[in-house]
Amino acid sequence: MPLTDKLRRLAARTLPVAPLRAQLDAPLASISFDDIPASAARAGAPILEAAGVRGTFYICGSHQDRSFEGRPQFARTDIEALHAAGHEIACHTFSHPHVPALDAAGIDDEIARNAAYVADITGKARMESFAYPYGDLSPASARHCASRFASCRDVVAGVNAGTFDMGRLKSLGLETRKNARAEVARWIEAAVNARGWLILFTHDVDPDASAHGCTPQELADTIADIQAAGIEIVTVAEGARRVRAAANC
Ligand SMILES: [Zn+2]
User: Fold this and answer.
1) C-alpha 147 – ligand 1 centre gap (Å)
2) Is the pTM of this model over 0.90?
3) 96 CA → ligand 1 middle, Å
4) Does residue 30 sit in helix, strand or coil?
5) For 179-200, how does the pLDDT look when each residue is reduced to its tens digit (9 = 90+)?
6) Neighbours of 240 (CB within 10 A)
7) Ligand 1 geometric centre to CA of 249 (Å)
């Protein structure tokens, strides 16, 4: 990675974007999926539903019926089914660009095209939650995205507690090759201790998971571990509402 890119990423993760100080009464967790692969909708969502919870699906409208990073992506009927089941349909841009490469008008165009795609399915003109493609952000692009959404999700592991940033919410990748169950358990414990908001993200949900995905068993185990720790699982949109309400108290 060129030095300028490294400095940009460092600056983006050092400077406040949309800081918030909030103390929840009880810890929260959210489970999210990016892009999204068809298996996230067809294998992942039913696992959440069986546990009585709903997830957040950050979609790119341009991915419909395509393959991305070697995995078949969603069909329109998948998004219809997710919405009907009460999952949150959230924004991951329309075409999955590196947002720091775009100016404000370019980011707005990506947001508007994705919003039009989703509104045609859900009837909702606006999405509340955003996740940066590739986890790539700059101070300027993050500030702009944060002005358009209630929350923007980064891919830096951690619990959102105390003073944290709604413009780059921390999240833990539920990835087969990276996070053993014990690692996830440590973050669950940290969320309980801080009464914070733990956000997880993954991509495909497949017995033969990609480097960025997880197996159905890992997803089910993670949800069971979170619930066993007494943590309520809510969508990212609902989590954002809870922390903002806690910040106002
Ligand atoms: Zn993505």
Assistant:
1) 20
2) yes
3) 6
4) strand
5) 678 889 999 999 999 999 999 9
6) 22
7) 35
**Ligand 1 center to 214 CA (angstroms):** 15
Ordered DSSP codes for 152-195: EE------B-EEEETTSB--EE--TTT--HHHHHHHHHHHHHHT
The 10s digit of each residue's pLDDT in 119-139 is 999 998 899 999 999 999 999
What is 19-248's CATH topology? Answer: TIM Barrel (3.20.20)
pLDDT at 110 over 80: yes
Q: What is the pLDDT of residues 74-86, one digit of tens each?
A: 999 999 999 999 9
User: What is the CA(16)–ligand 1 centre distance, in A?
Assistant: 23
- Contact at 8 Å (CB) between 230 and 193? no
**CA 242 – ligand 1 centroid, Å:** 25
CA of 226 relative to ligand 1 center, distance in Å: 24
Both tokens of 9, joined, read 């990423």
Q: Say how many Å lie between the CA of residue 21 and the centre of ligand 1.
A: 28
Tokens of 115: 């919003």
CA of 68 from ligand 1 middle (Å) equals 9
- Distance (angstroms) between ligand 1 centre and the Cα of 92 equals 7
Amino acid at 203: H
The C-alpha atoms of residue 197 and residue 156 are separated, in whole angstroms, by: 14
Helix (H) or strand (E) holding 108: helix 104-122
3-58 residue pLDDT tens: 777 777 777 788 899 999 999 999 999 999 999 999 999 999 999 999 999 999 99
